[in-house]
């Protein structure tokens, strides 16, 4: 019976939906995390009576047809890149982007990754790095005797040194943005990678046209909304239950048919 297979695709789709929702909820407190959502498409149809086909030699056609669907499939899990809440951390090397853009990170294999997580630290050499020790472009090094470090809204990093009245410029943070942010590949560790779908990165200083600004001593929280996720979870659970009910009903119908043949 076709209904068994059709309902099973619905159950598999909602199982995947619950897995996506659970990952969103698990990362509610992950800095810079962007929630995902499940997108579905219907599967192929078997046409029992094709709409528009001729019904007589005089040229009359079927105004409607008979098409039997074969279920549903998961086709995409795009990221929702809306702005997360910005909160104060009182840590001098934490940075949040208010607006569009990603920090650029040098990976050990030489490739560039992109992140919204601005929870940065200094390595033993005084270089600005991520929590995993990856260098933040363009490789800013803070002198060990610096008494204060300031990062402007436009990404200019300056340090106050003993015996100097004027602040010393250490470097300029640059941001990157993409035509299709949903096309970025999630690598883990709060990092994204460029793909053919995302397009090549556009680079500029914070505050440039189309780019957000930088807030020092702040972090962007995840954009996961607990109420929305729980509502989606309940809807997915009910959809799964209804598909399982279809399986039970189809089984009962098959059981009734087989008992008639005895």
Automatic annotation (TrEMBL):
InterPro entries membership? Flag_bb_rod_N, Flagellar_basal_body_rod_CS, Flagellar_FlgE/F/G, Flg_bb/hook_C_dom, FlgE/F/G-like, FlgG_G_neg, LlgE_F_G-like_D1
Q: Does the keyword Phosphoprotein apply?
A: no
Where is this chain's protein located in or outside the cell?
Bacterial flagellum basal body
Q: Some GO term, biological process aspect, for this entry: which one?
A: bacterial-type flagellum-dependent swarming motility
What range(s) does the Flagellar basal-body/hook protein C-terminal domain occupy?
216-260
Domain Flagellar hook protein FlgE/F/G-like D1 residue range list = 96-159
Segments spanning the bilayer are none
Boundaries of every Flagellar basal body rod protein N-terminal domain copy: 4-34
Q: Which GO terms describe its cellular component?
A: bacterial-type flagellum basal body, distal rod
Record keywords, A-Z:
Bacterial flagellum, Cell projection, Cilium, Flagellum
Family per UniProt?
Belongs to the flagella basal body rod proteins family.
Quaternary assembly = The basal body constitutes a major portion of the flagellar organelle and consists of four rings (L,P,S, and M) mounted on a central rod. The rod consists of about 26 subunits of FlgG in the distal portion, and FlgB, FlgC and FlgF are thought to build up the proximal portion of the rod with about 6 subunits each.
Protein name in UniProt: Flagellar basal-body rod protein FlgG
Which organism is the protein's source? Hansschlegelia quercus
**What high-level taxonomic lineage is stated for the organism?**
Bacteria, Pseudomonadati, Pseudomonadota, Alphaproteobacteria, Hyphomicrobiales
The gene coding this protein? flgG
């Amino acid at each position: 019976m076709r209904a068994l297979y059709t309902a099973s695709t619905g159950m598999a789709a909602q199982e995947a939906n619950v897995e996506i929702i659970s990952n969103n909820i698990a990362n509610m407190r992950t800095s810079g995390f962007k929630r995902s959502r499940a997108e579905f498409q219907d599967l192929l149809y078997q046409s029992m009576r094709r709409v528009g086909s001729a019904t007589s030699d005089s040229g009359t056609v079927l105004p409607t047809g008979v098409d039997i669907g074969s279920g549903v499939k998961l086709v995409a899990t795009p990221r929702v890149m809306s702005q997360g809440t910005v909160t104060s951390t009182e840590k001098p090397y934490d940075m949040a982007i208010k607006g569009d853009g990603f920090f650029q990170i040098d990976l050990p294999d030489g490739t560039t990754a992109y992140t919204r997580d601005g929870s940065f630290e200094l390595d033993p050499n005084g270089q600005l790095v991520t929590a995993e020790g990856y260098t933040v472009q363009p490789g800013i090094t803070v002198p060990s005797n610096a008494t204060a470090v300031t990062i402007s809204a436009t990404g200019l990093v300056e340090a106050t040194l003993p015996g100097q009245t004027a602040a010393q410029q250490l470097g300029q943070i640059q941001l990157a943005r993409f035509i299709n942010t949903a096309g970025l590949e999630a690598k883990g560790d709060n990092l994204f990678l460029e793909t053919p779908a995302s397009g090549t990165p556009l680079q500029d200083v914070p505050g440039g046209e189309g780019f957000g600004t930088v807030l020092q001593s702040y972090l962007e929280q995840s954009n996961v909304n607990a109420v929305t996720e729980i509502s989606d979870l309940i809807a997915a659970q009910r959809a799964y239950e209804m598909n399982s009910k279809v399986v039970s009903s189809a089984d009962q119908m098959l059981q009734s048919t087989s008992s008639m043949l005895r």
